[in-house]
Amino acid sequence: MILASQVWTQIFWTSALAGGLVAGVPIMFTALGESISERAGVLNIGLEGMMLAGAYCGFLGAYYGHNQWLGYLAGIGAGVLASLVMVVLCVWLGLDQIVVGIAITLAGEGLTSVLYQNRFSSSQPQLPNVPSAAIPGLDRIPVLGKPINGQFPLFAQPLIVYLGLGFALLLTWIFRYTNVGLNLRAAGERPDALDAAGISVVSTRSYAVLATGALTGLGGAYLALAGAGGFQPFITQGQGYMAIVIAMLARGRPIAVVAFSLMFGVALSLSTLLQIAGINLAPEVVNIIPFAAIIVALVLFARRAYLPPALALPYVRGAR
Amino acid sequence: MSSESTTGGGIAAPRARRMRSLRAERLVDVVIRSVGPVLLALGAGALLLFALGRDPVTFYRAVWDGGVASGAWQDSAISMAPFLLIAAGLTVIFRANIWNLGYNGQFLLGAALVSGYGSSLVEHVPLWLAFVLLFLLSGAVAGAWTIVPAILKARFGTNEIITTLMMSFIGIDLASILIKGPFHDPTTPLPQTAVIPFDKMLPPIPGTRIHIGLLVAFAAVIVVHYVLTRTSWGLRLQIMGANPKAAGHFGVSVRRLIVVSFFASGFLVGLAATADIMGLWGYIRTGWNPAYGDTIIPFVFLARLNALAVVPFIAFFAVVYTGGDLAAQQVNLSSDFLYVLVGLILLFMTVIEYFGRRRDLGASYLSPGLRQSLLSGFGRRKASE
Amino acid sequence: MSQPSAQATPLVELRGITKAFPNVLANDDIDLALRAGEIHCLLGENGAGKSTLIGILSGLVKPDRGLILIDGVKTPIPSPRRALELGIGTVHQHSTLIPALTVLENLMLGDSRRLRLDQRNARSRLAELSAQLGVEIDPDSKAADLALGHQQQVEIVKALWRGSRLLILDEPTSMLTPQGVAELAKVLGRLKESGQAVIFITHKLHEALSLADAISILRRGRLGGEIEATELAARPHSELRAEIVRIMFGEEARAVAKVAELREDLAEPETARRVEEDAEVVLELQGLTVAGEGSERGVADVSFTLHQGEILGIAGMDGSGQRALAEAIAGQRRASHGHVSLYGGDVTRLTVSARQKLGLRYVTDDRLGEGTVGVLPVSLNLFLKRVGERPYWRHGRIQRAVIDERAAELVREFDVRTPFVTTRVSTLSGGNIQKVLLARELSFEPKVVVFHKPTYGLDVKTTATVRELIRRLAEGGGAAVVISTDLDELVELCDRIGVLSRGQLVGTVANGPDAAERIGELMIAERTAAA
């Protein structure tokens, strides 16, 4: 009996971690991308739409290409295209970032829904499981290395997850020790200073937004491939907005972004967890928890979040 | 940089002529900026339909048939009632440079309450009184749902885009819980409330099928417009909306204004819920989220945050909404196509704004304060003006 | 110091430069010659076109017509990057340092195309340039923490970073104490010795005379006149001053002659304005402590008294707590400790509008952002502090006719140039917007008015008008507090001048000879231990 309860606790916590990873990884990619944009002074309210674009195209890529990597690639491409709208309208033409963001979300939601219904509403195909990449050695740890309830064990996540974590480290290095990182920071703090130093603010911000689009598309693709195993209209359910909040709270530090994303991932996968723990709550009640958690987090931590002063303000040379 | 002419007494003829031509120019400009995006979006939508292998002509004709022709206009008019009320609510709050994006949750909570209490209330109380009470109830509930984001913003400056969005998601789930729980119709296993009998719903305008909720909506729009443009309260709202710093300078109590305007906005959204439930549906079930506000936002901007000017836009949208549903079915397309159209309208609006700005005419559709308010409440921001 | 030969090819030459903006011809056929080892001054009042010309040199503005020659070769300057490559470094009037970054990071910004930041290289270059200028700079301190004088030194280092040969300084002394100006003069001297060409903009005559080797005078976009090196050295300053004023203003010279900016040396009070010994105390601050907002500093334990008929100045470098002080007096910000009394009555708890009615007014320095609502018409702006009051509002309803009529009166009285009273106030020029503010605050029997940077950025004529209004207020039985970073202005206007430093009132100086020096000393003195 004691042994059973010990196993129960282990399964619970590893499920929590594993579930958190699955649910948190899409947000993680998206939030990492958003932190690049925000650092450079661009606010991407359209993340929800971009993520959906990535999810749908990721689904298409994996479905027709029979390969997870084609799916990821397609997702990245879709995200880049969607963010191109942002680049042209907001960075180049200086139009309002929030309105364009809302437009991208609406168009993204509508377009992905229409396209999917157009082709797949009758078939509703499911994607095959994404293969996991086991870390040799670690995956032999009992319990932790074994699949739990069909979800990926802790140390045998799909390869892309490890790449994502590695990218977070890379991003930290880029932000702190390179000219690129310094330019991004300047674009968000005082774009006129960057301009006076001879660096193009428009270029810097453009690349930042495109990078965000790529990462967001990847996040959406992962959601479709590894999370849901398919696509449904409005599949993101507000995760794009969560990513924005996480990027702000993490003050642009990639490691913090990863941590917060995983925490919210756990919150999102709470319903399964609670079932395991034998606690039966109505699904709606459980759904409320992550959203309430965000509000609490905002109240507690928002004061200390630091936003670049030039965020969401278009840059015009010589403007008084 | 103004021309260096001094003000004088009577208006000389050349000046009057100049004023008239300025007005004419501005009128043309307003028309282009308002109608242009819509036409462009319809055109782009047609291209999209074409790319999907559907006939645009068939589609738009079906929209007309389903939205206007032979009595269908009445259905469009019916859908206008909640649209107008929500638009009025959004106009108020956007004028205050606050982003209330929680309208969906506010709407559904109001709808759940009205559906829950409505069926019993209409049996126990004179009908007209029931209607008044229900309107007030849903207004109050929806308004109350804005309190958390409002106080967080007023006291701590917490960003309201995210808080209202989160409250919206919570509100939607809460409505589901209420519908499945205390408001559940015991006579059916389906997750919905008791259906209100047809003769106990909002009566129609004589001679039509349109329920009087539409009249309530028109009245609300007029009242909102008057308050915003002619009263001192409206001016204070405008000051705060133009520039929160200026608001402090002019002794406007920003905190109180935030809470009151938030409540007013929610209240109007709540009124829309009663109009819809007591006028059209008669009940509510879980999983229903019409999300009217999402598609109304662009028109509020197109109307330059003017409550009266938004009416023709809403009328247009009502036709597209009603007819578009049927048209989508007819060409075998998802009705979410509407989102694409609305998104396109927003995009074209910003593009036209760009060209309009280059010609340096008129006012932007978006007050600068609305943009700033997004970033409020996140700790130290260096002044970068 | 040797004078460069007049025959030497100028390092940078502008010929026939013309640039027009939508409503104004900023530069009209201007010629300018800058030589190595020479400090050239571009003198002109606000709005004369100096900043535009400098913008052309630093690559921010493209001229419509005209030539730029560098070392005698025709060279366009299409971007700031190109300007830097051509050896032109600019120190702008408003700091382009990024406050959140360290000095070193600011200097490394945009320096190289390589991926990794090269800290070692940057540190050694900084040391090299600091030695050349004779200054000391800490590479690891945050730019936000530097005193203004040091910030400027960093900006000069940044401008010279890539080996520039022409250094442009835009209004370099506007934020400096007299001592800071002296240090700057030394730095400029060393630059000149090393063969650097320097051009600086100013609207203050005495600076031009004391710092420059050659002066070009701009008037309304055109080159009004030049004073070459030999002439500058030979003729007495008073004579030069008269000529320059004549060039700058022509027939209007009389009206503006007394203004501080046009004095030949640091302003000296002309007639000692006498304040009655036993004049009533109209405003009193006791131990006022106000929290700062955002990145701006607050004030702690400020006390002073203001008498009827007095003009009290508050000097101090930007960021010493001026805004907190002004807003606390006006009622816009709540004080955490202390009292404000008006005519002996405690007003500390009163709202803005209540204080307004009692005659306590505030003219803010942020004209567009705070003092007016740009999208509203002039008429409404004039009564924005009376929203809801009769007769402009009745039962909450606006009375347009009454507002327009009274607005027209005010517009006439204060000479606000606007096509109609219903014109949006954002379309007015800076000077006229200031007049709208003044019309609003100085109407309806003002008693005590706080002015924050009342003439900043205004042309000389309007500046003279504004200062006259302030004097008239005091002479008419009211009193004024003038908060300004411009010492010349304070010395011209005020009877006494208090000095705000790091949020505390560190002393008060009676106006008189050497006032500017004494104020400067107080501004930089180390803060003494709290009493």
What's the N-to-C terminus distance of chain C? Answer: 49 Å
The percent of residues in helical segments of chain A reads 55-70%
Question: What is the CATH topology descriptor of chain A?
Answer: ABC transporter involved in vitamin B12 uptake, BtuC
Strand order within the widest beta sheet of chain C: 6-7-8-3-9-10
CATH architecture of the largest domain in chain C, by name, is 3-Layer(aba) Sandwich
**Count of helical regions of chain A:** 12
Binned, the helix content of chain C reads 25-40%
Q: Summary?
A:
Chain A has helices at about 1-40, 45-65, 70-90, 95-120, 160-175, 180-190, 190-195, 200-230, 240-250, 255-270, 270-275, 285-300.
Could you describe the 3D structure shown?
The complex is a heterotrimer of chains A (320), B (385) and C (531). Helix content of chain A is 69%, strand content 0%. By secondary structure, chain A is mainly α. Chain A has one domain (13-128, 157-304): ABC transporter involved in vitamin B12 uptake, BtuC (Orthogonal Bundle). The longest helix of chain A is centred in the first third of the chain and has 38 residues, at 2-39. Chain A is globular. Chain B has a single domain, classed as Orthogonal Bundle (ABC transporter involved in vitamin B12 uptake, BtuC), CATH 1.10.3470. Chain B has helices at 13-51, 56-67, 72-95, 103-124, 127-144, 147-156, 160-180, 213-230, 232-242, 244-249, 254-281, 292-302, 310-330, 337-358, 368-374. By secondary structure, chain B is mostly helical. The two termini of chain B are 20 Å apart. Chain B is built from 15 helices and no strands. Helices cover 70% and strands 0% of the residues of chain B. Chain C folds into four domains: 12-87 and 164-262, P-loop containing nucleotide triphosphate hydrolases (Rossmann fold, 3-Layer(aba) Sandwich); 101-162, no CATH class; 281-359 and 445-524, P-loop containing nucleotide triphosphate hydrolases (Rossmann fold, 3-Layer(aba) Sandwich), CATH 3.40.50.300; 374-439, no CATH class. Mean pLDDT of chain C is 86; it is low at 1-5 and 527-531. At the A-C interface, helix 6 and helix 7 of A face helix 2 and helix 3 of C.
Protein topology:
The complex is a heterotrimer of chains A (320), B (385) and C (531).
Chain A: H1 2-39, H2 47-65, H3 68-92, H4 97-120, H5 159-177, H6 179-189, H7 191-196, H8 201-228, H9 239-249, H10 254-268, H11 270-276, H12 283-301
Helix pairs in contact in A: 1-6, 1-8, 1-9, 1-10, 1-11, 2-3, 2-4, 2-8, 2-9, 3-4, 3-8, 5-6, 5-10, 6-8
Chain B: H1 13-51, H2 56-67, H3 72-95, H4 103-124, H5 127-144, H6 147-156, H7 160-180, H8 213-230, H9 232-242, H10 244-249, H11 254-281, H12 292-302, H13 310-330, H14 337-358, H15 368-374
Chain C: E1 12-21, E2 24-34, E3 39-43, H1 50-57, E4 65-70, E5 73-74, H2 80-85, E6 88-91, H3 103-108, H4 119-133, H5 148-160, E7 166-170, H6 178-193, E8 197-202, H7 205-211, E9 214-219, E10 222-227, H8 229-234, H9 237-249, H10 253-256, E11 281-290, E12 299-307, E13 311-315, H11 322-330, E14 337-342, E15 345-346, H12 352-357, E16 360-363, H13 367-371, H14 378-381, E17 393-394, E18 397-398, H15 400-413, H16 430-441, E19 448-452, H17 460-475, E20 479-483, H18 487-493, E21 496-501, E22 504-510, H19 515-524
Parallel strand pairs in C: 3-8, 3-9, 6-7, 7-8, 13-20, 13-21, 16-19, 19-20
Antiparallel strand pairs in C: 1-2, 1-4, 4-5, 9-10, 11-12, 11-14, 14-15, 17-18, 21-22
